[in-house]
Amino acid sequence: MSATIISGKEVASSLREEIKKEVNSISITPGLAVILVGDNPASRSYVKGKEKASKEVGIYSELKELSSDISEKELLDIVDYYNEKPSIHGILVQLPLPGHISEKKVIEHISPEKDVDGFHPINIGRMMTGKDAFLPCTPYGILQMLKYKNIQTEGKHAVVVGRSNIVGKPVGQLLLNENATVTYCHSRTPDLASFTSKADILIAAAGRAEFIDAAYVKEGAVVIDVGMNRKDDGKLCGDVAFEDVKEKASFITPVPGGVGPMTITMLLYNTLQSAKKHAERV
Ligand SMILES: Nc1nc(=O)c2c([nH]1)NC[C@@H]1CN(c3ccc(C(=O)N[C@@H](CCC(=O)O)C(=O)O)cc3)C=[N+]21
């Protein structure tokens, strides 16, 4: 039997409707500042997607485009400017940054109260300890997709392939918070398939095109594809060999149209939450 496809587009549009309604119902306009350094075409295209989605739900978005030779100090000053600007509730510095700028320094410079990416160590610590935090958008979006399809996490064995700070590590943490049993694997894990084939929920976030085929997957598993790879023909593909795996899985997410639209949606959601908290303070 072929797997049910979890359409990120569908889940995203349902959540965006709710976000839009709530944006219209509050007394202030949520504001998001997006800082883009350099002219990487992929980064630019993601940033455009974020701007368009913000407008659609009534969030004000301000794009700051900076030359790739900007100094670290200048960038930190711009972050400061937005940290202090009352009409801005969320700040996103698009990664990756040019090599001469420390990403760590820049992320740590963003006010944790405006860190709608959920990348600041304060928010990561809050997430780890189960406190109120901005949750990182991709892992949070994955949780929403599971919820939307009523997929249980409690007592399930989740296997995460990938250990990045923005996807692999936090998605495991969030699944653990949801009472899953979590195993982390990565590029140095020997006999990877021996782990992934035990997964009830498999999260593929390693950044290798279509390498998870049916041999890596247990019959009836839920397979979430976080990969965002460009093929030689320019087409986007995930870490999962979709056609092969969909015959074995119970649920599967496509690329494109899967996790990607959810990432943007949770950014909008976090920006709305930040604006609401700001409104309570003033
Ligand atoms: N500070 C920061 N925060 C981020 O959240 C962040 C970042 N830096 N740097 C780059 C990555 C990448 N990312 C994507 C979000 C949505 C899609 C997305 O919606 N993709 C569409 C397809 C887009 C296309 O066709 O090119 C889809 O999967 O259907 C993709 C990629 C956010 N990132």
Automatic annotation (TrEMBL):
Query: Pathway of this protein?
Result: One-carbon metabolism; tetrahydrofolate interconversion
Tell me the domain of life.
Bacteria
Annotated Gene Ontology cellular component terms: cytosol
Q: Provide the binding site for NADP(+).
A: 162-164
A matching Pfam family: THF_DHG_CYH_C
Q: Fill in the subunit field for this protein.
A: Homodimer.
* Family under the similarity heading: Belongs to the tetrahydrofolate dehydrogenase/cyclohydrolase family.
Q: What is the lineage of its organism?
A: Bacteria, Bacillati, Bacillota, Bacilli, Bacillales
Keyword list (alphabetical) reads: Amino-acid biosynthesis, Histidine biosynthesis, Hydrolase, Methionine biosynthesis, Multifunctional enzyme, NADP, One-carbon metabolism, Oxidoreductase, Purine biosynthesis
Q: Name one GO molecular function term.
A: methylenetetrahydrofolate dehydrogenase (NADP+) activity
Q: Which residues form the Tetrahydrofolate dehydrogenase/cyclohydrolase catalytic domain?
A: 6-117
Q: Where are the transmembrane segments?
A: none
Protein name listed in UniProt? Bifunctional protein FolD
User: NCBIfam families from the entry?
Assistant: PRK10792.1 (NF008058), PRK14186.1 (NF010783)
Q: Where is the Tetrahydrofolate dehydrogenase/cyclohydrolase NAD(P)-binding domain?
A: 136-278
